[in-house]
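Many introductory courses stop at the sequence. We go one step further.
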Amino acid sequence: MKKIILLSLLVFSLRAEAQLTFDFEDAGAEGWVFIQPGSWLADNVNPLDGLYSLHHVRDNSVASTDAAMFSIAGLCPSCGTVTWEFMIRHGADPSSSNRWMYLLMSDAGPGEIISGSSINGYAAGVNLTGYDDTLRLWHLSGGHSEVVLSTGINWQNDIGTENSALINVTRTAEGLWTLGIARSMWQGAWNGWQGPWGGFAETLHAARYAGMAYVYTATRDMLLWIDDVSIDGVFIPDNTAPAIESVVAHGSDLLQVTLDEEPDGAFMESGNLSLHDGRAITGITRVSATVYLLRLDEKLPNREPMLLHAGRICDENGNCQKGSRSD
């Protein structure tokens, strides 16, 4: 079950302190996105709390990565303290090939994560790099990962494959991070908090999604559960449509288009983008959430102004502008 609780309204309703929670007790996963159909299910197989937990159920014959994520559109980590909490059980000993990370904030969605695209954001997990089984929090940027904090928890020794853990992460508006953890004794009972451990990282990226990325070998699939997921922070409603920030030539037949926020899938549809002189756009490549490369059928003239026309630019919240033009 998904719940959104508005705690208070600030600045004439432009900001809202809210808590976003999922407990899966309705045997559903409304609001979650899974790129692989049937890979995750809210079921009653060894639930972590209550009757149902979100469980990886894809019986895969090969090693793979699956992701289960939900939108955090509007989250404003620079506006105040954000608190994340989630419960997890990993039924396999962690390794470099069997590991998980919980993305606290990510500019990439599940499809990009599965495809191996670069992720910008923050994540808590085990063995993102290396294989010492320590629970850590990382900053992810441009294909690189940097440790923000390391805990004193060795997942294999201190948590194991039979126990679940409750993890709490906070970030202040200034960039101070803390992480605490409690291990289950039995369902609904905990052995007390350990930590918190602290670190500092102030860099922020687009906050689009949060959720789980699960890397596994063919014999260690279906061994991850999560439950009681929550985010408590300031959310600012998105009421503006995406806009093109720049169009830059990258070679004689390639244009790079940068937007101020991610558009919906229709942005890349055939015929939506066109050049005023009739040159055909033969292909569009999504580089990141806000950067796209346009391949042209002819070379661009040297030092002549070009006008790019977009028939429709909308975001995933339905904010649209039509007939946008950019030089």
